[in-house]
């Protein structure tokens, strides 16, 4: 029978040297969670409550938002925090429930690779979005025509 040490008993095992990654992961989850609440509700408020609401969301609306560096950085920060937050949560679940060390290592690596890939792709979309790519003034109409005609 294994006895459990008393809570205030001195440690018998030495602490591993280096940064405590689990502690920093725990802190990250709390901080990113609070920031994500602000970012997501700000995003939803601007997209759904201001202007025409959900009926005003179309390609031109997105083009107008992504024309502003403020909204580019807002959406990029929301993307980065959400993907890292989600990957870290999945890492915690994998660490809790996958018992085989090799399988756990493969799954955690796959999680971080998938998150990194999505962060790179999402960031490219946010910062390189060009609504005028393939723009033909002969067939276009509406707000996109105004935006692309103003660019030259």
From TrEMBL:
Keywords: Heme, Iron, Membrane, Metal-binding, Transmembrane, Transmembrane helix. InterPro entries: SQR/QFR_C/D, SuccDH_FuR_B_TM-su. This is Succinate dehydrogenase hydrophobic membrane anchor subunit. CDD domains: SQR_TypeA_SdhD_like. It comes from Microbacterium arthrosphaerae. Its main location: membrane. It is found in: Membrane. Pfam families: Sdh_cyt.
């Amino acid at each position: 029978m294994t006895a459990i040490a008393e809570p205030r008993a001195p440690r018998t095992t030495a602490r591993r040297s280096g940064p405590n990654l689990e502690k920093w992961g725990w802190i990250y989850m709390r901080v990113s969670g609070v920031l994500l609440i602000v970012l997501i509700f700000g995003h939803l408020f601007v997209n759904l409550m201001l202007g025409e609401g959900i009926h005003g969301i179309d390609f031109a609306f997105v083009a107008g938002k992504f024309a502003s560096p403020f909204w580019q950085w807002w959406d990029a920060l929301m993307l980065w925090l959400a993907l890292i937050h989600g990957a870290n949560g999945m890492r915690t679940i994998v660490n809790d429930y996958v018992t085989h060390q090799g399988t756990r290592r493969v799954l955690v690596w796959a999680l971080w690779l998938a998150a990194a890939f999505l962060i790179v792709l999402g960031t490219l979309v946010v910062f390189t979005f060009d609504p005028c790519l393939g723009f033909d003034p002969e067939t276009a109409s509406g707000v996109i025509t105004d935006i692309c005609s103003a660019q030259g």
